[in-house]
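Lab notebook, page 48
Experiment: co-folding of the full assembly
Goal: obtain a model of how the components sit together before planning crosslinking
Operator: M.T.
Materials (sequences as entered):
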Amino acid sequence: MSLIRVHDKNFEPYLTAEQIDTAIQNLANQINRDYAGKKPLFIAILNGSFMFASDIFKKLTIDAEICFIKLASYRGTKSTGHVITAIGLDIDLIHRHVIIIEDIVDTGKTLDQFLPQLQYQQPASLKICALLHKPEATVHPIPIDYLGFKIPNKFVVGYGLDYDGLGRNIPEIYKLAE
Ligand code: IMP
Ligand code: MG
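Observation: model returned without errors.
Model output:
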């Protein structure tokens, strides 16, 4: 087993490019079935999901649109937590079938704060498609409608996911070595 080094840490192979591709094909097959004739709008959350979004979008055979947003969190002067706002969401969601594309759902905090902002725009439907989910890390339960892999509560890099900016270009997924 070959370790790789990113910054100061060692990572070991976890999911191969082939496993990832197969999982994404399965997700695309489900979406192709579920959204035929509905012209869904995919909202991919940058940066981490750029590779996943690109690969799943190529496997869609139905009419579909995609847009990319970044989420910014601010600490309010009086509020206790972060408020998350979308940068670049310039499409009306009303009456649209929306599918969020996320690289990984960890504690669920990001989506827990962000989903109400989307619901507020009254989409016809709103579903989540995530490549990875760490169930053991859940703080805010998020219903994931289309999921690639459940993974243990270990830090992972590769396939768009970074460790402090690096590792996104690795075609496989590696996890922090023991
Ligand atoms: P959450 O709000 O805790 O669910 O975190 C979601 C975001 O944290 C993801 O979209 C990722 O950008 C980042 N993240 C969570 N776990 C990992 C990991 O293991 N590797 C790299 N990024 C991660
Ligand atoms: Mg992310």
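Interpretation: The beta strands are 4-6, 9-15, 41-46, 65-75, 82-87, 97-105, 125-133, 146-150, 156-157, 173-176.
Next step: discuss with group before ordering constructs.
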